[in-house]
Structure formats: C-alpha cells, structure tokens
Design a protein that fits this description.
Blueprint (H helix, E strand, L loop, with lengths): L1 E7 L14 E2 L2 E2 H11 L4 E6 L2 H7 L7 E5 L7 H11 L6 E6 L7 H13 L4 E6 L2 E2 L3 E4 L3 H4 L9 H6 L4 E5 L12 H9 L1
Parallel strand pairs: 1-4, 1-6, 4-5, 7-10
Antiparallel strand pairs: 2-3, 6-9, 7-8, 7-9
Length: 194
C-alpha cells in the first residue's frame, strides 16, 4: 500500500493570502493536485490543511481515497504538516509520497512513474528529477518514517535525500511543467498562461 500526503497547510507569507484556493483554470489550485493524486495508483490520499472549513467552501471534491487532516501547528513550519500527514496514513502503508499543494500541473503519470520505480527496486527514496535536479513529489519507504517524524521547524524531508543518496532512485522527467509551483504572484500569473 502506498499513501499520498498533500501538504496544503502553508501560510503563503509571500503571497499574503491562501494561494491554494486561488482560481486556476476554473478550479482552485489545490483541486488540480488532489485530482492528480486521486487519479493515480496511490491507495489513499491524505490532505493536510490549516483550515478545513475554508478549504471545503472552495473545494467540492469528495472521493473514497481522500481524507482530510487539520494541522493546528502549521505556524511552526512545514515539518508539522509532514508529521501530521504521516501520522494519519494507514499503518499498513509501505511508503508515503509527499506532494505539495501548489503544483497544479502535477500529473498522475509522474506519481505513477515514482510508484512503479519504487516497486521495481528496494530503494528508500524515489525522487523525480528534471535536468538532474530533484523536484517534488518525493516518495519515502516506511523504513524512514521514524526519521521523518523527528523533523522540526520549516524544513521538509529533503535532508533525507542528501543523507540517503546512495539508497535513492531518481526518475528523470522530460519536461519541467509538472513540477512548477507557485511561490509568488509572478509564478501564479506565469502558470495561468501555460
């Protein structure tokens, strides 16, 4: 069993508003990420948010694979959302794939490619790359869950990629589009034009 964890509880300090609920081609940004995750080979999708009421007002998405988790410690940094999501997945899960909520162009093909590569080898981490550069989403074997639960502050689990580089598999992707995210209003405007 492979679980997807969508990190959607960020404070969006640079954009000064909840960027994941902004309209992107007729749907909230977060909807695109959740739909790609649900359409993929993931067995379950856990979405970590700060304000579930606000999210549900904008997102009409419901699916048997999808569950919501509220992170009331989101102000303490990204690690708290990672931990909240990891604690919410099925105890039978063999791996967790962490997706970020601000990548509306992510494709289920990328997710499936990572899952397939994970199943083919015995690596601890599976990472997509574009021109050799690591991108999101990243898949972690359950053997690393204990270390992920020790993360603190506004750090993701990327430190583990450096630590376990030899035990990681890399999936080179031919185009950058699925990995583009929205950190600024400029990013948002550029993505809307694509």
């Amino acid at each position: 069993m492979i679980s997807g964890i969508v990190l959607a509880a960020g404070l969006a300090r640079r954009m000064r508003q909840q960027k994941l609920l902004l309209d992107f081609k007729g749907k909230p940004v977060l909807s695109w990420v959740l739909e790609a995750a649900i359409a993929s080979a993931l067995d379950e999708v856990v979405c970590v948010v700060r304000n579930l009421e606000e999210a549900k007002k904008k997102l009409s998405l419901e699916h048997s694979k999808l569950r919501w988790v509220i992170n009331e410690r989101a102000h303490e940094g990204q690690s708290t959302s990672i931990i909240a999501g990891l604690k919410a997945i099925s105890p039978r899960s063999d791996a967790a794939l962490f997706l970020v909520g601000d990548q509306p162009m992510i494709q289920s093909e990328v997710i499936n490619g990572l899952i397939e590569l994970f199943r083919k080898n015995s690596k601890l981490i599976v990472v997509p790359t574009f021109h050799g550069e690591a991108r999101n989403p990243v898949l972690f074997h359950r053997d690393l869950f204990a270390e992920i639960l020790q993360l603190t502050g506004d750090r993701g689990a990327r430190v583990l990629i450096d630590r376990y580089r030899e035990k990681s598999a890399f999936l080179e992707w031919p185009e950058e589009t699925p990995f583009l995210d929205m950190d600024t209003w400029e990013d948002y405007k550029k993505l809307k034009k694509r």
